[in-house]
Amino acid sequence: MEETMKLSETLEKCKECTRCPLHQTKTNTVFGVGNEDAALMFIGEAPGEKEDESGVPFVGPAGKLFDKYLEYVGIDRNEVYIANILKCRPPRNRDPLPEEEDACIVYLREQVRAIRPKIIVCLGRVAAKRLISPDFRITAQHGKWFDAAGFKMCAVYHPSALLRDTSKKADMLKDMKMIKEVYDSLK
Ligand code: URA
């Protein structure tokens, strides 16, 4: 049986990680932030520039937009946990490579095992393909629930996609309201 590591132990391991080349170009490891007993966990793609600078996920322009949705639907950012598939920034914010995801997913697995959320929400296509299904279609399947490994999982548009295409914002609001309702019902 695999042992559950404490988040602090996983963080220390992750900071020293050399499992893929991204550790050579990162400024900071962006491990995760929030409530370590959270019932609701959000998982994005990879750190961007501001996250790399600060070591905190979702603090740049996409993060600021995401915060507005959290606030609008009444979810306190401090009561959830937020992490990414990759803990180091890919150069120029390119998409994560499959081998980088393979190398880094061990840390996310340990985070999920330690936090034991009831709901996992993927922020965007990259996380949904990795965590829900490789065939995941974000346009058709955002806001739909999946049961996987004992978690309720769903995906919403990535906040960066909303910055590029504002026509997706209405769907995001609907999905976030629905997530809040399910979250409240499980509390
Ligand atoms: N985009 C992500 O997917 N994660 C972050 O932390 C920031 C931007």
Describe this structure in words.
The chain is α/β, with parallel strands linked by helices. It has a single domain, classed as Uracil-DNA Glycosylase, subunit E (3-Layer(aba) Sandwich), CATH 3.40.470.10. It is 43% helix and 13% strand. The chain has helices at 7-15, 49-54, 61-73, 98-115, 125-131, 138-141, 159-164, 169-186; strands spanning 33-34, 40-44, 81-84, 119-123, 146-148, 151-156. It has a six-stranded mixed beta sheet with strand order 1-3-2-4-6-5, with helices on both faces. Strand 5 (146-148) and strand 6 (151-156) form a beta hairpin. Helix 1 (7-15) packs antiparallel against helix 4. The longest helix has 18 residues, at 98-115. 41% of the residues are buried. The model has no long low-confidence stretch (mean pLDDT 97). Residues 44-48, 51, 57-58, 60, 62-63, 84, 160 line the site of uracil.
Give a brief description:
43% of the residues lie in helices and 13% in strands. It has 187 residues and is α/β, with parallel strands linked by helices.
Instruction: Order the strands across the largest sheet as they lie in space.
Output: 1-3-2-4-6-5
How can the largest sheet be summarized?
6 strands, mixed
CATH superfamily label: Uracil-DNA glycosylase-like domain
The stretches of 5 or more residues where confidence is low (pLDDT under 50) are none
Radius of gyration: 15 Å
Number of E strands = 6
What would you say the CATH architecture is? Answer: 3-Layer(aba) Sandwich
Percent of residues in helices: 40-55%
Number of helical regions: 8
Q: Determine the mean pLDDT.
A: 97
Bound molecules: uracil
**Structural class determined from secondary elements:** alpha/beta
At CATH level 3, the topology is Uracil-DNA Glycosylase, subunit E
Termini separation comes to 29 Å
The first-level CATH class is given as: Alpha Beta
The total tally of domains equals 1
| Gross morphology | globular
Strand content: 5-15%
* Helix and strand run: HEEHHEHEHHEEHH
